[in-house]
Design brief:
It is built from two helices and twelve strands. The chain is mainly beta.
């Protein structure tokens, strides 16, 4: 079902089935991470001209050695920003509602959506032509 929001943009209301989520996320595959924006209590990851992923859940950064760096740890922001210009190899949604963004350097951003304690959206994917997908 499509409906206009208060800004007159076309928003697609999509059921939250995993195949639709995976399809939405796959649009980021092959794109470079071009920006990392830290906002008070959320994060925006920009991907070339394919869109942006806003997340209300702070992601973990899994390195090639299997170590995961979590928000608040020393060097967390630097590690996340070091991924700028790195190409996304794949983006998947796991069965336990974790968005996994794998980069061509074998580092993975892990966004555990179920860990969000608030109500409503936990992540928002936006893209060209007013594309919007809410997780």
């Amino acid at each position: 079902m499509a409906y206009p929001d208060i800004w007159g943009l076309l928003i697609m209301s999509i059921q939250s089935e995993s195949s639709e989520r995976g399809s939405a996320l796959s649009r980021l595959a092959g794109a470079r991470l071009t920006s990392v924006q830290f906002v008070l209590n959320y994060l925006i990851l920009g991907f070339d001209e394919r869109g942006a992923l806003t997340t209300l859940v702070w992601p973990g950064i899994r390195e090639t050695n299997g170590k995961t760096t979590l928000f608040g740890a020393e060097g967390y922001r630097d590690k996340l920003c070091s991924l700028i210009e790195t190409t996304v190899k794949s983006v998947t949604m796991s069965q336990n509602e974790e968005i996994l963004i794998a980069f061509d350097n074998e580092i993975t951003i892990e966004i555990p959506l179920r860990s969000y304690e608030g109500h409503g959206e936990r992540a928002i994917l936006t893209g060209p032509k007013h594309y919007l997908f809410i997780f």
